Amino acid sequence: MQHTLVAVFDNRTDAQNAMNELLSSNYSRENVRLSTSDTTGMSDSGATRTADADEGFGSGIKNFFSDLFGSDDTGHASRYESAVSGGRHVLTLTADSLPEVERAADIVERYGPTDIDEHSDRTGSMAGTGMAGAMGAGSAGLQQSSSMSAQSGASTASQGLQSSSLQGGVQRTDSLQRDTAALRRDETSASIPVVEEQLKVGKREVQRGGVRIFSRVIETPVDQTIGLREEHVNVERHRVDQPINPNDATAFKEQTIEMRETAEEAVIQKSARVVEEVTVGKQVNERQQQIHDTVRRTEVEVERLGATGSLRDDDSYYRSHFTSNYGSSGASYDDYAPAYSYGSQMRSDSRYANRQWDDVESDLRTDWESRNAGSAGSTWEKMKAAVRRGWDRMTDDDDDSYYRNHYNSNFASSGADYDDYAPAYSYGSQMRSDARYSNRQWDDVESDLRTDWETRNAGSTGSTWERMKAAVRHGWDRMTDDNSTRRTY
Fold this sequence. Notes:
single chain; alpha+beta; 8 strands; 43% helix; disordered C terminus
């Protein structure tokens, strides 16, 4: 089922910044849209619309909200239509799962979207009873406004809206309407599972080929020489002139003489003999194979609420850099905003922790080009400087220099290397962000930390707890006193 998130902004800059962060958070550009219906006649792309376009846009917005909230809930639909028609900016996002919409809602909420329900209630009260209703709702001190609308289809839109009407007798004007029929959560706590894959290697038998032997009869010409004897009878006549012997009684008798001719001919005999044997057998060998693969693990990033001011400070910082370096090129700041945001996010990514720009540039380039494949206006060569500026912006806030200063003041004179103490600083800051030690003081957790540290560093004589305790404590205090909004564990 497809889910839709709708956020309305008074300020286009805030709407654009929210859209940029959604795109930087791996939401598809096709699923995110920023629409405007203002008095200047500007649309999504910033081009002037004609009267026909304005009429078509207004009709489309009206139909969109009617379809979203359903025909049975015309009140919410009309409120949103009136807000958009009054010149506000609408940011919409579609996703296939409710958790994705929830994540997008948390991102967009940082940029201060308009609470449509609260705005509508205030307008009605001013017209009828002089803001009495608005003041009554605000005096409770518990009014919630999440500033967006997340609905999963027309079939659940009405139910999701009605669930936020009354909670414990206190009015709740939630323009961030969540689909409570599909997702029930405890109002006082929520949890995100940290999932880690484990690698198991087994064996299976597969066909890898073999040998087939077959025999056939072939004829091969053979030449051999043998001597053969042949006889031939020759008849010769010789002329004789002599008297016959009177004693020869056979002179006038008939006689027959035969002489036969003989000859030899070749006689062939064949005999078969075994001259070779071909034997087929199998030989079994055992070998060791090293398996290389990857396993996935989710990392939970914790951000303190109320960081809008910090984000806007970053936006002003990046806008100043854009004006100084790209303003004269005729390009728009919105073209470079994703690059600034990408650089700052990658600097905070655990994969690139404690690594320099020169070491990670090739990896960032590959990742950037895969994210922006087909976008001729967002090539790496064009955006590299903006990405680097976002990276350096976060590097300036890195704790490494802070810990090095503490090391130089306390341990450098002992002849030890900073790399010996760096794990202790890191361990202290990590444990301060660990959920197990949330809202607990150092004196309460010191024994637990000592046990864990000695378990991790068993056998390392140079990393005893007594030697590293001060560095661990400094890392702990650094996170305790730090007002930074970024925590990763």
